[in-house]
Amino acid sequence: MTNRLANAQRRGLLRVAGALGATALAFPALGQAAKWPAKPIRIVVAFPPGGLTDAYARHYAEFLGGRLGQQVVVENKPGAGAIIGIDLVAKSPPDGTTLLMTTSGTVWQNRVLYSKLPYNLDKDLMPVAFFPSGPLVVGVPEKLGVANFKEFIAYAKKNPTSMGTYAPGSYPHMMADQANKAEGTKIQSVHYRGEAPMWVDVAGGQLQVAVGSYQAFNTVSTRGVRPIGVTGIYRSPKLPDVPTLVEQGIDWRLVALEGGLPLMAPTGTPEPVLQTLSRAAVDWSNTPSAAKLRETFAIPNKPKNLAETRKDWERDVPVWIKLAVDLGIKLD
Predict the structure, then answer these.
(1) Which of 57, 67, 152, 294 gets the most CB atoms within 10 Å of its CB?
(2) Residue 8's pLDDT is what?
(3) Are the beta carbons of 164 and 139 closer than 8 angstroms?
(4) SS3 10
(5) Which of 104, 112, 89, 99 lies closest to 43, judged by CA?
(6) Cα Rg for the chain, rounded, in angstroms?
(7) Which pLDDT belongs to residue 249?
(8) Residue 258 and residue 39: Cα distance in Å, rounded?
C-alpha cells in the first residue's frame, strides 16, 4: 500500500511537467495554434444538468464563445461515476476543441479508488482551470432531531443511517467512510447521479444526511432540511450562523479541505490554447455573471491563472490520493 501511494503521488506530481514537455515537442511553433479554434468547442460535463459543475460549464462556455467568436456547446455525459464523460474527453484529439468539466474527486482520488479505468489519469488529461466549490453543506431532515455534527454521529451510532453522495468516490462518500473509520459508525453511502435527487430524498426522509453545494441544498431548505455544518475552514457566506465542522471539533483532515470543479483538456493540447482557455476562466470570474453565480452558490473564491492552477494541482493531488488510500475505499 505504501509503495502504491508513493507511486501514485509521484505520478500526480510529474504528470503536468511531462505533459508540458510533450506539448512543446508536438507543437514547437506557436503559429500552429494560431488558427484555433477552427470548429466549435464542446465542454463535456460528467454530471447531469442542474448542479454546480453544469452551472460553471455553461457560464464559462457562454463567455468563451463570445470571446473567441466561435460556438461553444455544453454536453452532459453523466454515468458510471463520471467515467463516461471523462473517457470521452481523454480519448479526444488534443486540439483544444473538446474539454472536460467534472469534480476534483473524479480525477484525483479515482486513480486509486479504481483498480482499472479506461484511461490513465496520470497521462491522458491536464488541468486548465480550477473553479472553487466553496463550503459544502451538511444537511439532515429536521425530524432527525440533531442540531450539529457530533449529535449526528451519536445518532448514527445507534440507528441505521444512509448518506447521499453525488457520485462514487465523491467528497460525501469519503466523509461517510471517514466517519465509519474514526467513529465506529456504519453509515451507508447511497450514490446518485448528481445532487438534485439526493437532496430530494433527504427532504423526503429516505436519507438521514447529505453533503453538497449550498445552491442545491437551498432548493430543499424550506422543506424540512436543516444545515448542521459546512466543510472547509471558513463559514458559508449564505449560512454565517452555521459553524464549520472544524469549529465543531471534528479533526479529520478531510473536513478542512476544499475540492472544486476542474476544467481539463487532453494531454498534448497546445500551450497557447491552454493559456487562452485559462485566461478566459480568470477574466470571466471578474464579470457580473460570475459574481452572480458565486453569490447563488455561496462561493467566495475565484479561479486562478494557469501557472497557479498547476502549482495548486501538484500540491493538492497527493493529499487527496493519500486520504483515499488511507480510507481503503475501493469502487471495483
Answers:
(1) 57
(2) 52
(3) no
(4) helix
(5) 99
(6) 20
(7) 97
(8) 35
| DSSP symbols for 166-219 | SSTTSHHHHHHHHHHHHH---PEEEE-SSSHHHHHHHHTTS-SEEEE-HHHHHT
pTM reported for the whole predicted model: 0.81
Name every residue whose Cβ is closer than 8 Å to that of residue 309 and which is 6 or more positions away in sequence: 127, 128, 129, 130, 278, 303
> Residue 311 and residue 21: Cα distance in Å, rounded?
16
Which secondary-structure segment (H or E) carries 71? none
For residue 286, the 8-state DSSP code is T
Which residues of the chain are modeled with pLDDT < 50? 1-2, 13-14, 16-33
pLDDT digits (tens, 9 = 90+) for 255-297: 999 889 999 999 999 999 999 999 999 999 999 999 999 999 9
Residue type, 205: G
- CA dist 263 and 43 (Å) reads 9
**Residue closest to 61 by CA, chosen among 104, 99, 94, 105:** 99
Question: What's the burial of 323, exposed, middle or buried (CB within 10 Å: 0-12/13-18/19+)?
Answer: buried
Give 26-35 pLDDT, tens digit per residue.
444 344 445 8
CA 96 to chain centre: 21
Please check whether residue 152 is in contact with residue 209, taking contact to mean a CB–CB distance below 8 angstroms: yes
pLDDT at 201: 97
Give which of 102, 105, 3, 50 is closest to 321, Cα–Cα: 105
Which amino acid would we find at residue 85? G
